[in-house]
Predict the structure.
Amino acid sequence: MTGLFSEVFLSALLFGAVTAAIPLLLAGLGEQMSEKAGVLNIGIEGMMLAGAYLGFVGAFYSGSLWLGFLTGAAGGVAVALIMALLCVRIGLNQIIIGIALTLGLEGLTALLHHFQFSRSYPRLPAADATVIPLLSDIPVIGAAFFKHHLIVYLAVALVFGMSYLYRRTQLGLNLQAAGDKPAALDVAGIDVIKTRTIAVLTTGALAGLGGAYLANVGAGLFIPFITNGAGFLGIVLAMLARGRPIWVLFGALLFGVCLSLTTAMQVAGINIPTDVIQMLPFLAVMIMLVLFGRRASLPAALGIPYERGAR
Amino acid sequence: MSGSSSSSVAGRDIVALEGVTKRFPGIVANDSVDLSIRPGEVHVLLGENGAGKSTLIGMLSGLQQPDEGRILVDGKPTPITSPRHALALGIGTVFQHMMLVPTLTVAENLLLGGPWWQRPRSEELETRVAEITSSLGITVKLHAKVSELSLGEQQQVEILRAMVRNSRLLILDESTSMLTPKGIEELGALMRRLVEQGLAIVFITHKLKEAAAFGDRISVLKLGRKVGEIPPERFRALGEQEIISEIVELMFGKQKDDPEAAQRPTRTIRADAVPLLQVADLSVAPTENAPGLSSISFDIRPGEILGIAGIDGNGQKQLAEALAGQRAATRGSVRLEGTAIDALSVGERRKRGLRYLTDDRLGEGTVGTFPVSINFFLKQVGAAPFWRSGVEQRAEIDRHAAELVREYDVRTPSLKTPVARLSGGNIQKVLLARELAEGAKVVIFNKPTYGLDLANTLASRQRIRDTAARGLAVLLISTDLEELLVMCDRVAVIANGAVVGTVENTDDARTRIGRLMIGLAA
C-alpha cells in the first residue's frame, strides 16, 4: 500500500490527470460554443484527430511544438469548414455529417500516417515545462499542477475568457440567441449563418489544438485513433456543463483523474484486469449522466438548421 | 420625387407599395397590392387568414422579396433585402410569434444586433429605455428573463425594441391575438401615443372591432388582393357601426371577378323529406386555443347544401370535428338517418356514411410521403379488398387508384408519387375521391376551395354540387361568403361557437348574413 499512496505517486497521478484533462477541456469548450449557437458538433472527434495528426506532423518537421499547435488548430479548422459548409450553410443533418466526418478522419489520418512513417512511430522530444516559481515548490500539488507546458495554463485561462465572452460581450449574446431562438437573431439584423459558422470554426480550432496537445505533449507521438473518444467525452462535458465554461473545466479534471488512474493503477501493478480499469472513465461518464444528465439544459434550436422564413 | 429623403413631411408616405405581387407554389399570396403608409397614422390591414397579410409583412420586414412591383421608402424605390436592411430603413416589426430569446434578459434582448466586437452598451441602453418608457407611460423590467414575462409584457418589450432602434414605421402583426381584453385596450392606447409622436404604424388584424377602434386608415385584403380602403377623412366622418358595416361590405361584398357570382342554386328540395343529418343542442367545451361550441342545432335533408358562414376561428373546425367524432361533445346529439351516432367512433361514423373533408389537407388529410395510391385508401387500411390478412394488395390498390385518378382528374405524374408533391388542387381531388367513395351519405366540407386556384375552385364546387344532386346531405363550411351564396340552399351563421341565425338563400341573403356576422340581428 505504501507505493500507492506515496507523495510521488499522488503527484504523478494528478500530473497525469491534468495532462489527460487538457484535450477534454479544449474539446469541451469548443463543443460548448457550437452547441450554444445551435450546432450539435459530432464531428469534433474527427476535428481532434485532424488536429492530432497535423499537429504532430507540424511539430515533427519543424521541431517546434508551437508550430505544431498552430498546424493542429488549422487542421481542426479545415474539418470544421466542411462541417460549417454542409450543416450550417446548406443545412444538412448535423448528426449524420458529424459521424461521417469522424469516421472519415479516422481513416484518413491513419492512412496518411501509414504512408509517411510506414509502421514506425517516431517520438517528439519531451515538452518543456514552464515551472511556476514558488507555487511549484508546494509538496504534491506543486509538482502536479505547476510544472506543465505553457499551453496548459493558457487552456485554463481560456475557461475564464470564454465565461467573459458569454456573459459580457455582444458575440456571446449573439451565440446564445443563435442557439435558443435563431429567428429572433435574424430579425435583429444579425446573420444567423455567419454567427453559427464562427462558432463551428472556433470549435474546430479548439478541438484541433486539443488533438495536437494530446499527440505532441500527452503522448509525444501520433498513432492512428489516438483520440480514442476524447471528442465524444468533450460532447458529454459540454452537455453537462449547461453552458458554463467553468463546469467544463471541473468535468474535464474529473475525467482526467479517471484516465490518469487507469494508467497509474496499471503501473502500480494492482491486480485488476486492465479492461476493467480502462472502463473507468466511461463508467464515470455514465455515473455523471445518471446524476446530472436530467438537469442538462440544451439550447432550444440545437441541431436544427436555420432557414429564414421557414416555420 | 426629389432625392431629399431626410425632410419627410407629415402626410407624405414613409413607405409605399406599388403593384406588389408575391407568388408561392400554387398560390398568389399578394396580387398587385398598393399601400401607402404615413407618419402619424395607424394603418390597419384587415383580412381573414390567407388574405396575404403575413406575406405583405414579410416583404416590408425584409424576409421576402416581391416578385413584381416595387416598394418605395421616402419616395425612392428601395428593395428591402434583409431584416437588417429593414431595420436600417427604420422599419421595425413585432411579429405574431414572439421574436425574443427566452433565455436572455430583456436588456440582453434589446442589445441583440449590435456589432459583435463591441461590449454591449448597457448604460446607454438604460437611459434610452428610460426616456422612451416615460414618454409612453409603460414600465419594463429590464433585468428580468424574457421567459418570466407575460405575453403582453413581451409584446411591450418588442415594441420598445423597435423604438430603441429609432424605427419610424412600426408593424404589429396580429398583435392582439394573444392578449387579454385589457391588454388589447392598453395596446390600443399605446399605439395612439406612438402615432402622436409622429410614428407610422401598420396594424394587422382580422378583428373588425379592433380595426374600427384603433385605426386611422383601413385597407381590406381578400385572397391576396386589396379590395378597398377607408382613408382617414372618411374614417373620421363615420361612426363605429358605419365603419364596421362598410368593412363588411368590402370583405364580404360582391366580388366582380368570381365568374359564378351572379348565379344562385336552383335546386328543389322536398320539404317533407326526412333529414339525413340531425344535430341537436351540440356543445363542445372550449380549449386553450379554440372556442367551444354552444348548443348548435340544425337538420340537413337529402340533396341539400347547408352552409356555415362566419369569420374564421369561430368554431367552424370544432363543429366539423365534433360531427366527425374527432372531438368529444359535452352535450347534445347527432343523428344520421335517424339513428344516434354519438357513441360511435370516427371509423364507425365513416362506415355509416358520414364523411369529413378536412381543411388541413396535408397535415390531417393525407400522409405526404405516402404515394397517391395509398392515400386514396388511407381510411381503409387493413380492410379488404386492399389488404388481405394484413398484407397490402398492391395490384388491387393500383387498379382502384388508377380509376379514381381518371374519374377525379387528379393530375399526378404517377400513382407512386408522394402526395405532398402534388399541387393543393390535386391533393384536394385525392381527398374528394376518398371521401365521396361508395357509402357516403352526409359529407362535411371544411373550406374546400381555400387556397386553390380558380380552375380547381370551380371543379371542387361542381363536385360538391354533384354530391348534393346524388341525394346526399352536404354541410359546407366556408369563410368565402360568395361561395356560400352560389352553393347553398340555406346558410347558418356561426359566431363564437354558436349559430346566431340561419338564412334561406334568397335575394337579400347577402345583407342578412353580413349583418349576422357582425352581430346585428338578421
